[in-house]
């Protein structure tokens, strides 16, 4: 579950732990609380379909890519367009090393019509003109929200092809990328989010679109709507965030999943649970297959999330067996990309922000623990394939390329070309020591493989953090 981007609260609201209304600033050390002011969140009026401004950043509606995409065609990008290297370490995409060879230019899968040029998605999170949707004036400390000239083009679907799709946690990091793709595919999308870790800014470019609705709602409370598919993502996923209010984390996983399964049962919607590699705990089997039952400490600091997700899986299969709900379960491994919040607390955003700021990179423990990192677009491809295939058992979605955390720190430092030290902090309790997905099931039943190298993903993510750094710093000061 991955709605773990920018933590947001309204400054004027009374904040209570029970409402998840405050989250810790976890960018430097675990569990340091930081109030984050979201009183300046954009209003739902910030997009308009009829503005006549000639704003460059949103000309994608008029671009050849989008005209063709509206007709359901796949566009192969030209070299110049796609190799807009993120400019990490001052090498603005010019240099072609083995690490940057074979750059992905088209994501998705034609079989489920999720294919789209990467450049179209990049316009949504790395627009050439960064103030297309929101202008931040640091001197005056003002924000303005210019009306955007048009929405990104979406595919035309016949009525019977267009689905009404609910995405819980759809304003979070993973959720918002999934929403982008479902919208571009031509579906109607309804987002539920309580904005604890999600942000309106992540879906701002769709506000006002006739196919899109955004609803502030906590999945712990029941919700009624007629839909065809439910992607159930809502839950904080970063360890410092889910450990901040463990009772609420358990409630979100258990009650939230019951509520969404109840909705799926009533409406006969297909239900996809985003579970996690954390159900394997600190694994004794490596790499982890879906058949492995896991090694989880039921009373440790991670239990609220790990056990919450395990119960969510149990609930999902109980509804399938007892009430014939049509279910899918994705077990998501470590995922990164644009729209992670710099205060997320997870290793990718921590290391990148520390390197960009010139701070020491913080390793918890000896750094010999391992993780396998997948880029966000690969995950979204896998989720959409899983939803649209007929396979009901849990499926691992992750990139099997495994790094020790120390090697990963070295890699980020060299990609950013940062002259910073790497420091060791005490290990965190119950930190899984090895993690790598066995993706045999996803390959066999979904025809899915990760396409992005970690390097390409990291470069795009660094580019995103460079673009948003000043603004994020202002928001979180
Ligand atoms: O990123 C994700 O997708 C996953 O993140 C977390 O799992 P975890 O692997 O603990 O994620 P991180 O907090 O990013 O930690 C990864 C490793 O880096 C280490 N770390 C983290 C942060 C840091 O500054 N320094 C550091 O050494 C951690 O101790 C851990 O060993 C969640 O629990 C998963 O559900 C989620 O799928």
TrEMBL record:
Pathway of action: Nucleotide-sugar biosynthesis; UDP-alpha-D-xylose biosynthesis; UDP-alpha-D-xylose from UDP-alpha-D-glucuronate: step 1/1
Location in or out of the cell: Cytoplasm; Golgi apparatus, Golgi stack membrane
InterPro entries tied to this protein: NAD(P)-bd_dom, NAD(P)-bd_dom_sf, UXS-like
Named cofactor requirement(s): NAD(+)
Membrane topology, record value: Single-pass type II membrane protein
Annotated region (Disordered), positions in chain: 1-58, 76-102
Gene Ontology MF term list: NAD+ binding; UDP-glucuronate decarboxylase activity
Compositional bias (Polar residues): 1-13
Record EC number: 4.1.1.35
Residue ranges of domain NAD(P)-binding in the record: 166-461
Tree of life domain: Eukaryota
Pfam families (alphabetical): GDP_Man_Dehyd
Extent of Low complexity compositional bias: 43-53
Top EC class of this enzyme: lyase
Chief place where the protein resides: cytoplasm
Transmembrane helix keyword on record: yes
One GO cellular component term noted in the UniProt record for this chain: Golgi cisterna membrane
GO terms classed as biological process: D-xylose metabolic process
Keyword Lipid metabolism on entry: no
Catalysis: reaction(s): UDP-alpha-D-glucuronate + H(+) = UDP-alpha-D-xylose + CO2
The family this protein is said to belong to: Belongs to the NAD(P)-dependent epimerase/dehydratase family. UDP-glucuronic acid decarboxylase subfamily.
Protein name: UDP-glucuronate decarboxylase
Organism: Linnemannia hyalina
Organism classification: Eukaryota, Fungi, Fungi incertae sedis, Mucoromycota, Mortierellomycotina
